Amino acid sequence: MSEQQLFKVTIDNITIDVPAGTSILEAARKIGGEVAPPAMCFYSKLKGSGGKCRTCLVEVSKGSEKDPRPMPKLVASCRTTVMDGMEVKNITSPKVVDARAGIVEFLLLNHPLDCPICDQAGECHLQDLSYEHGKEATRYEFQRRTFKKHDLGPYIQLHMTRCIMCFRCVFTADQLTENRVHGVLDRGDHAEIATFIEKSLDNDFIGNVIDVCPVGALTDKTFRFKNRVWFLKPMDAHRDCPKCSGKVTLWNRGEEVFRVTARKDEWGEVEEWICNECRFEKKLSSDWVIEGPREISRHSVISQGHYVHTVKPTETFKAVNDGRAPHLLLNIHHESDVNKPEIELSLINGPAHSTNFNAR
Ligand code: SF4
Ligand code: FES
Prior knowledge:
Layout: E1 6-11, E2 14-19, H1 24-31, E3 57-62, E4 75-76, E5 86-89, H2 94-107, H3 125-133, E6 150-151, E7 156-158, H4 168-176, E8 183-185, E9 192-194, H5 208-212, E10 218-220, E11 233-238, E12 247-253, E13 256-262, H6 276-281, E14 289-293, H7 317-320, H8 332-335
Parallel strand pairs: 1-5
Antiparallel strand pairs: 1-2, 3-4, 3-5, 6-7, 7-10, 8-9, 11-12, 11-14, 12-13
Iron/sulfur cluster binds at residues 163-169, 193, 212-215, 217-218.
């Protein structure tokens, strides 16, 4: 067998050898950190993805050793393969930084600024991009494109107004499930993700569309409005599942499991796809073997609440109180109807309302 040909490529002044056929984006991910361009539509586990959003644009300042001419325009790094001797600029190019700000402005033309109520907040790639490149005001003066929310079956809700048309969910349904029932309808600014005649997405493995969606357009109905992700504790867990690997991340608050997702890597991509049963129907801690806290490696506020290596100070109250434990002075549940301990928020069907607490 002939040895694999390696190409030398320099990205933001860091040189690396990668196999021929590697894209600039994947080469940059091998270097890691900020050198890797953001990607809103490319997904390494989905064939044919990429080339839609343009957030991964880079400048090729030297085409290759044989033809050192720079490329005339910025190129989509997820769809451009490396050449031997190629030199690429990502964050070291003012042109790229400027273009990326423009792309973010385009993506936000129609996207609502509803992060305060959106379930994806805290793990949304568009939210991160807006913080990094967004402007404080919009120059857009026309009416925004809006859509009604659609229930795509019992587990998934489509909030099309938030969609950025990355096509990831379409590739996921095509490549993971037996029968794709949703896709892109219409063209141009009328294009939308839809099922044509109201159909529900209920194929096994279709729940993965929630994980691949870079924004909050596809949400888990069993989790919507239940909690903010940064208040939850992600834990690695597994179960013996006949359909999938059964390796998941549980998002807990106390003992309650609020949601179940696939485990994601540092680029926010699913490591192993999980089935609908693991995702939507196993919401008790007893369904799972807990492995330990999950480190969220993609930069995020979520891991900030992990106190895994904390050394607790010695409890001195008993020592100074002749061995007596402190008294409970006030039990808030005696005073308030809210948060009754016997009501498990994670098990209520839909967001909690006052009726769930039997308000007076
Ligand atoms: S619904 Fe989400 S995954 Fe599907 S195209 Fe829109 S943004 Fe992409
Ligand atoms: S990630 Fe390359 S165009 Fe979207």
